[in-house]
Amino acid sequence: MDSVFDWYWLGVGIGLGVTAGISGFRRRGSTLGIAVTALAALAAGVVAGLVLVWALLGYAGGLGIGLLSFRRLSVAALPAAVVTAATLAFVPGGGYLEALAAPLLGRRLTRRAGERYAGLRILAKD
Known about the structure:
By secondary structure, the protein is mainly alpha-helical. It contains 6 helices and no strands.
């Protein structure tokens, strides 16, 4: 890692990994998730092959962070989150910011997930 340019591409690799993790390729029947994961992996592979091999390791780490953080993300919010994360990955420092913010946002999603349907259960008993 000789220059700022290398650090930039490492951040892009990390950001693309988080993007692929958000896409949630583990969801059943999610062709969007599979397509986004494949495109992000291809982009990270190109970055790793042409510019910096460390970007591939950054991608793998970002993928793990994204998968663990956004397990509870709704399917309706998925396209907006993926587009935002992919765009932020190419902003200088954005990939690093994604890796730091993803666990915090994931924790917020997990906390709010139990509260969301409490009113519907009350209505179902009537």
